[in-house]
Design goal:
- The protein contains 14 helices and 17 strands.
- It is α/β, with parallel strands linked by helices.
- It has a nine-stranded mixed beta sheet, with helices on both faces.
- The protein is globular.
- The mean pLDDT is 92.
Length: 489
């Protein structure tokens, strides 16, 4: 299956930091279909060769294990092409259409590509303009797919407007809304864990589970992204998309099949079942924070208000912790805790399923609940925490132990990264790991009362020390129910 992959924003950070390394890994692994071309488009003028050298230099900044040798890059670079485009000019889209449709004898292709993927790696405010122009240029035929990178809008109304313009030119099956967390191997294994094994399903409900915690923590600050981040904040940047998608994967009912829409139907039901926020519950169940200056690993780091291009007195949150519930029979009364933030104690993404303690403990001092830890980053695997006899001759002495499954060690072959998987799925037309428009809009519908409450609240975010796990109010939020965050257990 031949393909053309067009990267709008071909010289931007997302392209050279994430997409090109992922595409190279797919090439290195022999996963890219033969007869493919990768076309980068951007505003400045440069040749194919100049663009290839630009990408070669950028590869020096990626993880050394994923860096190509000179020979590998030379072979990969033959797929790379460049075209100058002014995204506001209709004639440039017409030229792109001709480039896609013209046979290239020197590339061994006598017919146009079987599949065309248009990846919008641009600022989101350009999405509607690009999609409208693509439709006007008739670059929206049945073999074309458009990939939209988050954030999709900044509130429900803007998300609906983007979806309206996209739907005017592309069908729902052609519009792929990407959330790279869904491409992580551990998230894919979450479905396998739940629906491919009989072990957990009888326990995966309110009778056995006390609470579920989802943590998406970053150790770094906003760095050079101060201007973007100040307009976005942690709730929009991480909760509305990544955290809620993980929640739906944990909480959804078994789908009728592995079909994309069967899965997305069940995820949508979860989003619609989330306990809605009110102004009072935002005060009670949501904590927003902002990191201050301090010391991390012996080095002084600036506070958020001291970061480049962050305006004085900004109330943008760099940390969010919240409590919610899924109001259905399976999960009634089970709290779900979500938290995310920057300048936290570690780079750590995980889902912790805390089971209820045994109803009648017969071993003294051993009434410690089991838990399942699904690790997303930096490690990728599962931990099942149990109680076991110490084997010291004292039969009543139990100790906590855990079974550790490291996916990288368990599977000998090199594993596919998140963007690599999603790009390959986009080329192949597999929709399971992409977000449907009604899912995306329902997620905005759920977080919008929080945004509205903050907009009408003069209180500043709670300050927290860099290198900590956020404001103390985050711990209090969980402790109110008699629980604790995983690192405090």
């Amino acid at each position: 299956m031949s393909f053309d992959l067009v990267l709008f924003g071909g010289t931007g950070d997302l392209t050279w930091r994430k997409l090109m390394p992922a595409l190279f890994q797919a090439f290195r692994h022999g996963k890219l279909p033969p007869g493919g071309r990768i076309l980068a488009v951007a505003r400045d003028e440069r040749s194919d060769e100049a663009y290839r050298e630009f990408i070669r230099e950028r590869f020096n900044e990626v993880d050394s294990a994923k860096r190509p040798t000179d020979g590998e890059f030379d072979r990969f670079a033959q797929l790379l092409h460049y075209r100058r485009m002014d995204l506001s000019q209709p004639e440039h889209y017409a030229g792109l259409k001709r480039w896609i449709e013209e046979p290239r004898a020197e590339e061994g292709r006598s017919t146009p590509a079987d599949t065309v993927v248009l990846f919008l790696a641009t600022s989101p405010h350009l999405f509607t303009q690009i999609c409208a122009q693509l439709g006007a240029a008739q670059l929206n035929g049945p073999k074309v797919r458009v990939v939209l990178e988050k954030p999709l809008g900044h509130d429900l109304a803007s998300a609906q407007e983007i979806n309206r313009v996209v739907a005017a030119s592309f069908t729902e099956q052609q519009a792929l809304r990407i959330d790279h967390y869904l491409g992580k191997p551990s998230v894919q294994n979450l479905s396998a864990l739940r629906f491919g094994n009989a072990l957990f399903e009888p326990l995966w409900r309110r009778e056995s589970i006390a609470n579920i915690q989802i943590t998406l923590a970053e150790g770094i600050g906003v760095g050079t992204r101060g201007e973007f981040y100040n307009q976005t904040g942690a709730l929009r940047d991480m909760v509305q998309n990544h955290a809620l998608q993980l929640l739906t994967m944990v909480a959804m009912e078994p789908p009728a099949s592995n079909d994309a829409d069967a899965i997305r139907d069940e995820k949508l039901k979860v989003l619609r079942s989330l306990k809605p926020f009110t102004p009072d519950s935002v005060v009670r169940d949501v904590v927003r924070g902002q990191y201050r200056s301090g010391t991390v690993d012996g080095k002084t780091v600036p506070g958020y208000l001291e970061e480049d291009k962050v305006p004085p007195g900004s109330r943008t949150e760099t940390f969010v912790a919240l409590r919610t519930e899924v109001q259905n029979w399976r999960w009634a009364g089970v709290p779900f805790y979500l938290r995310t933030g920057k300048r936290l104690a570690a780079r750590d993404a995980q889902i912790v399923v805390n089971f209820r303690p045994v109803p009648h403990p017969i071993f003294p001092g051993a009434n410690v609940a089991n838990k399942l830890v699904i690790k997303l980053q930096p490690e990728d695997g599962l931990e099942l925490h149990l109680m076991a006899a110490k084997g010291t001759g004292q039969t009543e002495a139990l100790s906590p132990v855990f079974l550790d499954l490291d996916f990288d060690k368990a599977f000998s072959s090199e594993r596919v990264g998140a963007y690599e998987r999603l790009l390959l799925d986009a080329i192949a037309g597999k929709l399971n790991l992409f977000v449907r428009s009604d899912e995306q809009e329902q997620a905005w519908r759920w977080v919008e009362p929080v945004l509205d409450a903050w907009a009408n609240d003069d209180a500043a975010p709670r300050l927290y020390a860099p290198g900590s796990w956020g404001p103390p109010a985050s711990s209090a939020l969980v402790a109110r129910d008699g629980f604790a965050w995983a690192e405090e257990q």
